[in-house]
Design brief:
about 240 residues, alpha/beta, Rossmann fold, 7 helices
Length: about 240
């Protein structure tokens, strides 16, 4: 096989953005899917799609591990490759589906959680590495407390300590969905893109402010540096 050299700039565009957002229930993680530019598709393991009632986005509902595998097979098929944003809502719920399946197969909880970590690692990597696609995954939020200092850190949540700790490492962008009150008592919503003393977050692009408006199109524009054209279009232009 001939060696092919690529520019890091081109690879960053054609590989797509990989984003994980954690936040409390009702923060707006599901609604964030509606801000994706281009042609998004949602893989939903939750019943809470009411916040998207005013938009028309294709949805693949998954209730079992076989459903998840079928969703992946669809996305890599010619029919599924027209979608340039894949929104998974939520990866925490999919992990619960996997864990429930494993618990039925073994009486040893340790084996079930071990199998969970292995399967979810494969699943997260598979969806994250979909060629030429932007991937947004939402997940639940949990807090850990330092026993010595008493400090509390909010971060991604998933069943099983190994999986919860591993999740941030799979993504270039990890945001904390913040819901706060301004001085007038109005509710404000922000995506925190960098870690502080209370929230786990990171921005490997270095293009984002500490707090961004919850809008995937605007974030894509900032990171890529151009209008948020679809990655599929960028790949097509690169090939031609």
């Amino acid at each position: 096989m001939a060696v092919q050299l690529r520019s890091t700039r081109d690879s960053a565009v054609t590989q797509g953005l990989k984003i994980l957002v954690h936040g409390p229930s009702g923060a707006g993680k599901t609604k964030l899917c509606a801000t994706a530019p281009g042609k998004p598709i949602i893989i939903s393991a939750e019943a809470g799609l009411l916040s998207l009632r005013d938009v028309d986005i294709p949805v693949l509902e998954v209730a079992s591990i076989s459903d998840v595998h079928e969703a992946y097979a669809f996305l890599i098929s010619p029919e599924g490759q027209v979608y340039d944003w894949v929104c998974i809502d939520s990866i925490s719920e999919i992990a619960e589906v996997v864990l429930n399946t494993e618990k039925k197969l073994t009486k040893d909880p340790r084996q079930a959680y071990g199998a969970l970590a292995e399967q979810m690692t494969d699943l997260v990597r598979a969806f994250r590495d979909l060629p030429g696609r932007n991937v947004y995954m939402s997940c639940k939020q949990d807090k850990t407390k330092d026993e010595q200092s008493g400090a509390v850190l909010y971060g991604p949540s998933a069943p099983g300590q190994r999986m919860a700790q591993a999740l941030p490492y799979f993504f270039d962008e990890v945001f904390a969905y913040r819901v706060e009150k301004d001085p007038e008592g109005n509710t404000t919503r922000w995506l925190q893109t960098g870690r502080d003393f209370t929230h786990e977050a990171k921005d490997r692009s270095g293009a984002l402010d500490m707090f961004e408006v919850p809008d995937l199109a605007a974030i894509a524009k900032k990171i890529v540096g151009t209008s948020p054209k679809t990655v599929a279009a960028a790949v097509s232009a690169d090939v031609s």
